[in-house]
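Hi C.,

You asked whether I'd gotten around to modeling the 489-residue construct. I have! Everything is below, sequence then structure, no commentary in between.
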Amino acid sequence: MSTSEILHSPITELSRKLRKKECTSVELTTAFLNHTKKSNPSLQSFLTIAEESALEQAKKADELLEKNATTHDLCGIPIAIKDIICTKGIKTTAASRILENFVPPFDATVVSHLKQVGSVILGKTNCDEFAMGSSNENSAFANCTNPWNTEYVPGGSSGGSACAVSSRQTPGSLGTDTGGSIRQPASLCGIVGIKPTYGRVSRFGSMAFASSLDQIGPFANTVLDAALILDVISQSCTKDSTYAQKPFIFDQQQICTSIKGKKIGVPWKFVETYANQEVLKNFKDQIDFFTKQGATIETIELPHQHFASACYYIIAPAEASSNLARYDGIRYTLQEGRTESLDQMYVQSRSLGFGEEVKRRILLGTFVLSAGYYDAYYNKAVHIRELIRKDYQDALKKVDAIATPTTPTPAFKLGAKTKNPLEMYHADVFTVGVPLAGNPGLNIPTGFSQNNLPFGLQLVGRPFEEDVLFQLGYAHELEHKWYEKVPTV
């Protein structure tokens, strides 16, 4: 295979070539590493490129493949990991100064699963600090850019993982999604990304932002590739009490089945309120496509969805203020100069180590959990969350999936919203309700704006029915093949 063929082939094709001995894992890994090193200065999608260990893993994968051993389709396939997921022996910073030099002594469960099937860990991708952000501009080390136009954001918080896949630096990657951090950057970068059902994938080894919302999921250029990665990372774990012990089983025949007769619900009132005109037109075109494929479109209501952003930005910061209390300047973290007391050391370490957005959310979370405001804010948000969950539950009794745009606008320019946090939070208006309910959500690419920036469609399903979302996504992909259009970087 030529370098160009390697970079532009989906995982399913690369896996087939490996088994036919038309290429080796070392050749694949070398091609992706070289492309990454060449393009990363302009994209800043990787914070750490693990070249030496990646090539060692590739050699081991080739040995397995040479023996014609029974291997998973991801054996020998390079995968990049968001820098908030622990990787043994590879620096894991959460894009924060407070963990600038932290090297974990263990692998996250998802990384262990990938290594067990012979995948190659290429390196660690850029993200918003501790996964807090919607544009990847909150990284302490570099602003990741959008591969379709480097003056624009890639989305966040998993912007580096999305950018790396879109720009063909890697055929697949892992991100985390708390309020939209997989689906939103997948949309803005024009690729496939799925937030699995809460509990589908082990969170052990992923640095916690909001423990009741966080979920690890894959990015890929095709639906089948994303499903293959989910098949591996969702396997058994005994170290995470929230893991549901329900691994996703990859079934290509089921995914490729006709969608005729499927029912798709559209909350038109909600969509038309928040989507701009360009996004709305594109969304209507996708709904027309599903109708032509034999799916039934039904208007649904999500009556409490307009409270989702406010609810999310109370619950998530509250959980973050607790989770981030462990970063105190003593364990693995930042210390600068001498201090007069323990309290002063805590204050100095956290003030210097955390960025502005992280500090903003810690303060907000501490405030809503304080004695005088707990009932007025946190308890009320928990109640609203249950209403949102019920909205999705009721709607999905009538339909197989819910469709909305993934984002209200295409990607915006770097710096356009950094001075207005509320406007930045609005970028997640279509995605935040899904993790509050615990449902799975899939983004698929649906074309480009007048400025050549990607659009995305979000499909939301019943808990543990990711296969239905992949089925709908595959039907769309089979017709449109947006993965064949590649950014020039």
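If it helps when you're writing up: The two ends are 21 Å apart (CA to CA).

Thanks,
B.
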